[in-house]
Amino acid sequence: MAPTPAAAHDEDMTNPVPPGALRVSHAEREPVVGRLQEAYAEGRLDKPELDLRLHLAMTAKTRADLDAVLADLYWVPVPPVHGQAASYDPTAEQRLLAALAHVLGIMTLFVGPLIMMCTRAKRSPYVRQHIVTALNFQLTLLIVTIVTFGVGGIVYAVAWIVAGVGALLALAGSPFRYPFTLRLVR
User: Fold this and answer.
1) Which of 137, 93, 89, 95 is nearest to 113 (CA)?
2) What is the pLDDT of the chain when averaged over all its residues?
């Protein structure tokens, strides 16, 4: 007895479909189009090749067709420039911890930021950046005071103001670097 068309259809539905054979939607095409535009901006593609690949991406039916458009364009993440803030907004807790590093530097010299470096630096890059900045500033002040036989202690009055500014900027979610500071800890 020959199988009915409905039975053949049901049998086809139970066989797994390879991932490359799945059909794509407009939402899946958009990131590919974005990557092609980035590749053109980076100089990896010229204008005629960009137009051809955009056409292929917009008319792709399956994931395999879409993957073929990007086959020779691997993703190259751009490393952040040294001293550049992260591109995300820090949370309230992260901002508070960063401000605390500056305030502890006022009250405990380098000890407070050093303890925070040991206990809290792995929480986020934003917090670590502020802890390292406060620690380097306090260590620089300590070295200046020792080298000048205590005369550099006068600088601490100005340091309190600068550390307060650092704490306020940390609360605002902004990066901050103290001026004239040795970068002993990175």
Assistant:
1) 137
2) 82
User: Using an 8 Å Cβ cutoff, are 62 and 21 in contact?
Assistant: yes
How many residues comprise the chain?
186
Per-residue DSSP letters for 39-74? Answer: HHHHTSS-HHHHHHHHHHHHH--BHHHHHHHTTT--
Say how far apart CA 106 and CA 45 lie, in whole Å.
54
pTM of the predicted protein model = 0.52
- Which amino acid does the sequence have at 169? L
Tokens in use for 101? 């590093």
pLDDT tops 50 at residue 78: no
Amino acid at 12: D
Judge whether residue 62 has pLDDT over 80: yes
Q: Which two tokens stand for residue 126?
A: 């934003």
How many degrees, rounded to 5, is the angle at CA 126 between CA 121 and CA 129?
65
